[in-house]
Amino acid sequence: MEKYARQREVWDRMADAFQPTESQTSVEPLADRSGKAGVGTQPTPPKAQATPINLVGRREALQHMTQNVLAGLTLALWSSQPRAVEAAASELEALELPELPPPQPGEDVLMRMMRDLQRALAKPKEQRHWVMVIDLRKCVGCHACTIACVTENALPPGVLYRPVMEEEVGTYPHVARRFLPRPCLQCGNPPCVPVCPVHATWKGADGIVVIDYDACIGCRYCITACPYGARSFDFGEHHSDNAPHRAEYDMVASPEYGQFRQRQGQQSPVGNARKCHFCKHRIEKGMLPQCVTTCIGRATFFGDANDSANLVSELIASPNVMRLKEELGTEPSAYYLV
Amino acid sequence: MEYNLTSDEVAQQSGAWRTHPNTIVHQLTVAQPRWMQILFYGGLTLLSIIGLIALGVRLLEGLRITALTSPMGWGMWVAVYIYFIGLSAGSFLLSTLIYVFGMEQYEKAGRMALLSALFALMAGMLFVWIDLGHPWRFWHVFTRWNYTSVLAWEVIAYGFYITVLASELWLLMRCDLADLALRTTGWRQIFYRVVSLGFRCPQNQNQYQYCHTQSMQRVKTLGMIGVPVAIIVHGGTGSIFAVVLAKPYWYSGLFPIIFLVSALASGAALMTFLYGFFGRKDEDHFAITRGLANLMILFIGIDLILITAEFLVGLYGNIPEHREVYHALLFGQFRYTFWVGQMLFGILIPILLVTLPRMRHNTFWLGLGGLSAVIGIVAVRFNLVVPAYIVPMLPGLDHAINEARWAHSYFPSFWELASSIGGVALVVLPFSIAFRLLPLFHEIGEQFKETADPMPVTPEQSRVVDQQFQQDPGGVPNV
Ligand code: SF4
Ligand code: SF4
Fold first, then answer.
1. How does pLDDT run across B311-354, given as a tens digit for each residue?
2. Domain residue extents for chain A
3. What Cα–Cα distance (Å) separates residue B65 from each residue in A213, A261, B58, B62, B412?
4. B interface mutation test: which of A224, A263, A328 has the most B CBs within 10 A?
5. Which of A62, A93, B149, B169 could bridge A197 with an S-S bond, Cβ 3.0-4.6 Å?
6. Chain B residue closest to A194 (CA)?
7. pLDDT for B167-188, tens place per residue?
8. Cβ of B146 and A199 within 8 Å?
9. C-beta separation of B266 from B90 below 8 A
10. pTM of the full predicted structure?
11. Closest CA to ligand 2's atom 5
12. Residue in B133, B143, B393 closest to A80 by CB
């Protein structure tokens, strides 16, 4: 775990930098999640004030509204460079990558993927093509990836990046169950991108389809256009909405795109389309996507397909590979082994 | 419902309008009994207040007050939005029948059609605006315009369209507005002065004729530009949906055409209703209402053919994602909006009212047929948008996520309904006022027919206009 100390330090620094000062209160975070997260990848959650809900005063409500208007008019002007998200993320690129042990026989496949990842990160961004491979024969339907993703990205209720679909085949008593985890497939030819009226979502050079939360107007056209149901809309709800106080875990800033946004009022990402981004904030620091790390069956693989030595390149060359709805010409970057 | 004064009476009381300037304004529109007006405007004001409250709640609370879910991304508001865009495009295209294609028998309904088109467009804009997750960022569409997005193109088209509409309307009414600005006093005068945009009255029959011909020519040119723009506006609105390959129900070349035809049907229905109930009750009233009703039935008929074609192909093809939508419409979740809203109100009642021998000679029943279609087409719009969403994008996706915001079913929430009804009232209220105040049914050149007097302007103004007119007969008189 010491290997990640440096990362964590940077995360913490960033978390502090992104944190609004007024949320520095005496309330302690629930727990140091970074200590519990196994590989130790979760940044320390920014300390958040437990805000009572439902009891928004008139002044406060007006203040929110004014803030929204003003923020809408000024902030977005300032941030309207289409590549803002990428810029924020590439800031981290100068990072030192963790040192990995040399390959050993019988080692966890994660180790190989991490080594592959480091090799990919050494190349210029345009030469990488991130690909996810999901071995359906190994998936046991535990939904751990779904939950890991919710935790990693601090997702509110109703926003899910990686559900696992279950299908029952056959008729009783001859039944079996099939599972199909579905991240955003980061289509090569994504139908969600051209429809956006404000160019708030685009395909990055590394093949990841990203959303600029400050640009998105929340029209939900992209959600409609995705043939895989891979986009969610953030309606602004919190897990603790019916509790007397807003829980702190609801106020954890999401590390998405390295931006550490806290969900408050109607500030982005509330009111935006949201989607899986292959944990862009993690991979650019040499970490695998959280769903890959967490998968108990090691059924999910991740890597750079533009590198024949990469594990995923080997996997997607096998004959038992398929992609979802290939007939639509979307060219997904997620492959399934069947 | 009757006029305060017939035109003959006005003519008899020659000069009466000078002492009672507002009389003539009342004379221009229908006067309803007082209690009806109070009821109407009171009700509209109440609904508008509800609309404002709902709008406020929506702006403060965000989209969480809706019953929308991630998979059912567009709901009531989008349906109402395309409904109004359809009404607008339909009314406008009907007005071009008069001003571009020369069907002059409907001329008396022309300004009304344009005015409804203008207000319907504004209503459409209101609803697409409140549907945004970040309404205060709407201007991103201009600063970050994405040329590959149909929605972005549509916004540009709406801008063009509203310009064409407003210019046409102004050109058609400018003489009458200028006239009214001179004849009235007080706030009415200020209103007419503002909307006439400084245009001054022609001084005599000759100038009037000249000015009128010029207006009509310009209106014709604008109308010719407007026809493709209106087609782009509504066909394009249909294309927003038709280009989505993820939704087989929408993904068809026929879809934008269905949008256009049902737009024409809804426009004709609105015209039938408005003209039948509130149009000027003169000797042409029945003929015009009847003609509009016939147009409405024609478009409803074509619409029905197209929809049948889509349904047959979809059902026969039997592709699951496609078929399920039709099943939901015919027998499932949407059977009431389909059978009661779309079929009964939108098609059956209008056809019956317009064709049954007892009804078809009465403008009241014809107007009612129009109203029924106007209401039914709300259901048509709902059925065009929402059912496409109920089929999960991947099998099992509807069960994979047990979250309220991932449900694959939709019924508008209280606030969505309140803001829809209230939002409509918010637009109908100014529309009704404009309907009363603007010279929509003012017969062109009326003032010259009725009074031999020159227009009531100061001798000084009169001199200047005459001078201008002599110097430059091609220009617009302007003092
Ligand atoms: S899966 Fe959907 S959201 Fe992801 S890139 Fe493809 S179309 Fe876009
Ligand atoms: S919801 Fe946001 S990202 Fe999606 S199409 Fe609309 S503006 Fe673009």
1. 999 899 888 888 999 999 999 889 999 999 999 999 999 999 98
2. 2-45+81-337
3. 21, 23, 7, 7, 10
4. A224
5. B149
6. B148
7. 999 988 888 888 788 777 888 8
8. yes
9. yes
10. 0.81
11. A196
12. B143
